[in-house]
Amino acid sequence: GVRMRMEGREEMQGAVGLRCTWDIPPPAGTQAKWVRLNVGGTVFLTTRQTLCREQKSFLCRLCQGEELQSDRDETGAYLIDRDPTYFGPILNFLRHGKLVLDKDMAEEGILEEAEFYNIGPLIRIIKDRMEEKDYTVTQVPPKHVYRVLQCQEEELTQMVSTMSDGWRFEQLVNIGSSYNYGNEDQTEFLCVVSKELYNSPNSLSSEPSHKAKV
């Protein structure tokens, strides 16, 4: 049993060694690869490479350290006085280029942080998403149901005047008098009416049960 465990450990070390060779060694003189950030009391651990994906961002300038003299906490993490809730998605965006949000996370909150950290591509993505959402909310029309009724000229006024229940007159199509078997003076019309349907299953299901009780 001991020998097995030993072999396993050696294999593990081999694998770890392999993984390290994939990373291109940093040129001499660059700072450490890993960076700790203390955002509003929550510590995030990431790499310099991730933070510098967006060259113009505050985070890239921060970890290069030339321009910004940022305070650090006792562990050496850069202190950033921002909301840590929204920092997670920001950091993940820099890691893999996708915006992933929990369902209860406000896009406005992320936008605010993206603008603070000056991450251009992320700002554009969020603004697009917010516009798309506004667009779908305002552009969803109620469902329309159409009916085509056939009637003669003399019945038209009566039919239009007695239309009820939200039915609306849409279009009149003159189909001539060919259906009237020799009665030439009666013109036939197809009358198109429509009704807007809002989804309210409750009202539909409750009506029959009331009638049943009565």
Short account of what is shown:
The termini are far apart.
Helix-strand layout with pairing:
Layout: H1 2-22, E1 34-39, E2 42-47, H2 48-51, H3 58-64, E3 78-80, H4 87-96, H5 107-117, H6 120-139, E4 143-152, H7 153-161, E5 168-176, E6 188-197, H8 201-213
Helix pairs in contact: 5-6
Task: Describe what this molecule looks like in 3D.
This protein has 214 residues and is of the alpha+beta class. It folds into two domains: 34-138, 2-Layer Sandwich (Potassium Channel Kv1.1, Chain A); 143-197, 2-Layer Sandwich (Alpha-Beta Plaits). Helices cover 44% and strands 21% of the residues. The chain contains eight helices and six strands, in the order H-E-E-H-H-E-H-H-H-E-H-E-E-H. The protein has helices at 2-22, 48-51, 58-64, 87-96, 107-117, 120-139, 153-161, 201-213, and strands spanning 34-39, 42-47, 78-80, 143-152, 168-176, 188-197. The strands form two sheets. Strands 2-1-3 form a three-stranded mixed sheet. The protein has a three-stranded antiparallel sheet with strand order 4-6-5. Strand 1 (34-39) and strand 2 (42-47) form a beta hairpin. The model is unreliable at 11-29 and 201-214 (pLDDT under 50). This is KCD17 protein.
Count up the domains: 2
For the residues shown, what is the average pLDDT? 76
The computed structural class is alpha+beta
The fraction of residues in strands falls at: 15-25%
Which descriptors would you attach to this protein?
single chain; 214 residues; alpha+beta; Potassium Channel Kv1.1, Chain A; Alpha-Beta Plaits; 2 domains; 3-stranded mixed β-sheet; 3-stranded antiparallel β-sheet; 6 strands; 21% strand; disordered C terminus; BTB/POZ_dom; SKP1/BTB/POZ_sf; T1-type_BTB; cullin family protein binding
